[in-house]
């Protein structure tokens, strides 16, 4: 295994009865990557993720998390990762705080970490409400806070945007971007919402009928940048002086996506943004256009 990978999955095979649902599945995940896992219904996403969480066992193949083989050094491997698979298991009669404290106590997590996560997931104002009264998004945030208690290097999320309204989706996206930044975590998440994957992922892994498919990560003419800035509204105005406004999309409270055909015009816009004393907190190049990739990979094989 390369030292540089947080996760390595190699030649995973899994049968249900006589039916082979994973066929030589191999991939890796690098530090600080957000990877989208896509594929039609029944392709094998959940089965792969459940194997990675040691909830089910592959018939053959290896999975290393943080350098530890999940079968040979289970506890060490699992201590490097956290997962939200299906809905988080919460005690509905207990408050958010009681839920998180219970697990924190079992795992001997210091109080400071608990408070940090309550704040990070934006639950501070509702933390004394019973979990049964939480909305879907709040339950998920609490589940995420609990999953992150032990400072994992790697997070697995199975369809995290399911059941969330648009605000919940934006909140989750901001939380996950911040998580990668602040906690230097890598994330693998599955989703059917291509738009969401595009906004969140740096890379995608495609699976179809139990097999990983070679994925074109870059498609010509589809380069875009994600900009995280201190002032989204004025940044958008400045960009619109040189770039068509249908190529600029506000993603959240502090980020925008810009489709770039002309690098020079984009560089000039960046200079102007800095001249106006707007802080560019982060900028990264995305070479994904998920819909085109999905179409190229799966053709007419729609879900
Ligand atoms: N417990 C099980 N017993 C038998 N077959 C199963 C079981 N769980 C999953 N399968 C089958 O394995 C295949 C892969 O399922 P899996 O849930 O991994 O797909 P998926 O890509 O996560 O799909 P979806 O997008 O619908 O969640 C499917 O054909 C499914 O019917």
Automatic annotation (TrEMBL):
GO molecular function terms noted in the UniProt entry: ATP binding; ATP hydrolysis activity
A Pfam family that the UniProt record links to this protein: ABC_tran
Alphabetized UniProt keyword annotations: ATP-binding, Nucleotide-binding, Transport
Location of the ABC transporter domain: 7-234
InterPro entries according to UniProt: AAA+_ATPase, ABC_transporter-like_ATP-bd, ABC_transporter_ATP-binding, P-loop_NTPase
UniProt cross-references to Gene3D superfamilies, sorted A to Z: P-loop containing nucleotide triphosphate hydrolases
Top-level taxon of the source organism: Bacteria
Protein family per UniProt: Belongs to the ABC transporter superfamily.
Stated name of the protein: ABC transporter ATP-binding protein
Organism from which the protein derives: Anaeromicropila herbilytica
